[in-house]
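Support request, please re-run this one:
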Amino acid sequence: MNDKYWSKRGKLSYDYKGEKFYTITPLPFYLKRRKILLRTIEKVIRQIKRRKPNLKVCDFGSGDGFYCCWMSKKLPESEITGFDISPSMTKEAIERVNRENLNNIAVYCGDFNNKNRNYDLVLSLAVLQHFIKPEEIAKKTKQLHDHLEDEGMVVLFEATSKKADSSKKLLRRTEAFYTNIFEDAGFRLIEKQFISFPFFNLYQRKFLNRFLNIFKGDEVQKCVSMNKNFFMNTLNRFMLDIGIVLDKFFRPKQGNTIFVFKKN
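Re-run finished. Output below.
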């Protein structure tokens, strides 16, 4: 994990339809994936609430606090705690919490393992893909297990691929890698869902990445500038919609997987 990188990301924001964003993923694509992810989290919350009405929830890698605030509104009587290594992201999360006047959220700059607390539900969303060494992921997974109540659950969302792949921004691992490392730590896989938009991925690799050169700055700054641009957002939304129709003609090779694990 590179805290300097995330501190820089925390200072690059833009508004879209009344919401502040930091993602460098093409925005229409990001929002489509987020909608699918939120449906899964909501289903898991319902499952846990059948046996326990008030939950203790941890967002590991809470970023700008979007998911903390979303869960706070879904679970007003529960305790929501967010952790992030980036001071600038943590600052943004606290400001979001205060702006939305939510009083059941605490956000900390640091690692969840530094607090002696146990949780009923942990979200780990696009975090482990930034860990370089597998042994670091194994250690963190065991810590997640130690900080869960009995029958506690983890919603994991990571970049995945049929074959392991790497880029400057993340490590794209196989689904089996995450399943095995969580099972070794004492978890049981409840469900998983692979999310892929192969036509849009092809469009992004072959064309969209070339468009980035019209913007100034490093790669991150270019991606942020693209997401701030009305024309590029309109084009990307159109290509995503077209792609959903055409995806049946493409074989997906990479995407993201939502895993739901339960503590044994």
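The first strand starts at residue 14 and ends at 16. Residues 19 and 66 are 10 Å apart (CA to CA).
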